[in-house]
Structures are given as C-alpha cells and as structure tokens.
Write a structure and sequence with these properties.
77 residues; 3-stranded mixed sheet
C-alpha cells in the first residue's frame, strides 16, 4: 500500500510541475484589460490542465484562454 501512495504522490507532483512550467512559459498580458492569462495552444492542453486551472484561478486570480486573443485594433478588421 505504501508503494501505491508513493507512486500516486510522484505522479501528482509531476503533473503539478508540468503545469507550473506550462503556466510560466505560456502567460501573457492582454493589452485590452491589462490582465495576465495563461494561453492554451489547444483544447487538449486546456482539458489536460483544467483541474489545476480551477485551483490556480481561485488562489491567484489568473485567467485562462484557449488560443491567442483576437486583436481589437480597428485597422486589423
């Protein structure tokens, strides 16, 4: 039983570590509202990390977005 707990703890720690690295490298400030967002490159990444985004958002106020924000520049329309 102790081995199973250790394996689960290692997997959980690795999951959190991978999320922390992803969050660090994929955070950007959206110029429209000045807020920081973790930008998910795909729905797969979003759903993979979704459980942690709830916790992260509640603790840090971080926001999340799938894909890049749309430009609000009038000349780009």
């Amino acid at each position: 039983m102790n081995k199973a707990i250790i394996v689960v703890a290692v997997i959980l720690a690795a999951y959190i570590g991978v999320y922390a690295a992803y969050r660090t490298t994929n955070t950007e400030v959206w110029e429209v509202d000045g807020m920081s967002y973790v930008i998910f490159g795909s729905r797969l990444n979003y759903y993979l990390f979704r459980p942690l985004t709830y916790i992260d958002g509640a603790i840090t106020g971080m926001r999340f977005h799938i894909g890049p924000h749309q430009s609000t520049n009038e000349s780009s329309r």
